[in-house]
């Protein structure tokens, strides 16, 4: 989808769901990272994240368009246009816009944990860094520690 097709889609969506024309500019903005779109209060233009369309498809993207158009039309009619406002929440529900966009961020990999075992009481000890087994001993029984290996899975350290 190019800029002209986006402009046409936003204008059609505005007329179909809100019954009001969209008279400003809608553009793709690749610099948007954590949000699906943005409404500019001063210029009344709309920015959209093209990754939403590429990653999640047209249905999710249409929800973002409806969301930004809610900000647009409510602001121009001097009603509550912020996320916290009752009017915004009500209009968003009426037109079927998305309240939140799905996350684009990649999940962080699990931290590597170094595993030791006490030679006396067999207690397993997880550390984020390697320790000197000649210097450090088991905290429960003061037994000698033996290096087991590195684990990449998340482990509940409290119990």
UniProtKB/TrEMBL annotation:
It is found in: Cytoplasm. Its cofactor is Zn(2+). It comes from the Bacteria. Its main location: cytoplasm. Zn(2+) binds at residues 67, 71. Binds 1 zinc ion. The keyword Oxidoreductase does not apply. Pfam families: SprT-like, Zn_ribbon_SprT. Residues 4-148 form the SprT-like domain. The keyword Lipoprotein does not apply. The active site is at 68. Keywords: Cytoplasm, Metal-binding, Zinc. Belongs to the SprT family. This is Protein SprT-like.
């Amino acid at each position: 989808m190019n800029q002209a097709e986006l402009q046409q889609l936003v204008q059609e969506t505005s007329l179909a769901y809100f019954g009001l024309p969209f008279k400003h500019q809608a553009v793709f903005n690749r610099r948007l990272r954590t949000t699906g779109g943005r409404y500019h209060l001063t210029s009344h233009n709309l920015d959209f994240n093209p990754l939403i369309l590429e990653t999640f498809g047209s249905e999710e993207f249409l929800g973002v368009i409806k969301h930004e158009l809610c900000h647009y039309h409510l602001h121009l009619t001097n009603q509550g246009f912020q996320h916290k406002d009752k009017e915004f929440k009500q209009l968003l529900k009426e037109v079927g816009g998305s309240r939140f966009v799905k996350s684009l961020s990649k999940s962080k990999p699990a931290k590597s944990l170094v595993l030791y075992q006490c030679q006396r009481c067999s207690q397993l000890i997880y550390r984020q860094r390697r320790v000197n087994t000649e210097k450090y001993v088991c905290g429960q029984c003061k037994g000698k520690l033996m290096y087991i290996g590195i684990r990449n899975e998340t482990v509940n350290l409290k119990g």
